[in-house]
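Aim 2 progress update. The chain analyzed this quarter is reproduced below.
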Amino acid sequence: MRSHVTVSWGEPSIYRFDLEEVQPMPHELARSWLDEQFTFFGCEPIRLTGKVLTADKILGVAQAAGEERFRDPAHRAWALAFARATSAALAKPVVTVDIPTQTLGY
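Predicted structure tokens:
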């Protein structure tokens, strides 16, 4: 089964990460990694209850990290870790993170 994550800021700013040849990230490690990044980037809960869903963390981290982290080869390791964590945390082999619409697609 094909495994990849796409992060989009709209055309032509689309970044694809093929995870076929990459070691899968364990689910709990993925959730922990996203939690750490959510805190590191100072992301805020978007729900009035303060509850932060995994999808909210993924969208918040991607937006806070900014397009440069996905575009710049110097940040390739971070971007790949984001893709691995996203795929593992959602338990989905194919994920699209759409920043302008703030949606995730599986």
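The chain has a mean pLDDT of 94. The radius of gyration is 13 Å. These observations will guide the mutagenesis experiments scheduled for the next reporting period.
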